[in-house]
Specification:
By secondary structure, the chain is mostly beta strands. The protein contains no helices and ten strands. It has strands at residues 3-7, 10-12, 18-25, 34-39, 45-51, 58-60, 68-73, 78-83, 92-98, 111-115.
């Protein structure tokens, strides 16, 4: 059974940093593209970043490019999203998704990121 458990969300000041984690079980994470998406109240799910299987090439939404970094730890079967220079508009519930850009399921329960001074 595929399980994805996000963690690491919380309160961060504008300009601050946060690292989100997504612990995967039921499959070998490195063999699949993995994606982060986010959702704000009243909005749909927004694609944030994808890391592809194999060599692990990455892609980012323009809104986070240069500030966020997606990575994975194969030994821990865990996906990460390093968020730097966080902006108020980054506040959202962040989900990890098993699959490439455009996939929305399966995903975890999400972790809330709040940006406030």
């Amino acid at each position: 059974e595929v399980q994805l458990v996000e963690s690491g969300g919380g309160l961060v000041q504008p300009g601050g940093s946060l690292r989100l984690s997504c612990a995967a079980s039921g499959f070998i994470l490195r063999n699949y593209a993995m994606t982060w998406v986010r959702q704000t109240p009243g909005k749909g799910l927004e694609w944030v970043s994808t890391i592809y299987d194999g060599a692990g090439s990455t892609s980012y939404a323009d809104s986070v490019k240069g500030r966020f970094s997606i990575s994975r730890d194969n030994a821990k079967n865990t996906l990460y999203l390093q968020m730097n220079s966080v902006k108020p508009e980054d506040a959202a519930v962040y989900y990890c998704v098993k699959g490439p850009k455009g996939f929305l399921w399966p995903r975890g329960q999400g972790t809330q990121v709040t940006v406030s001074s």
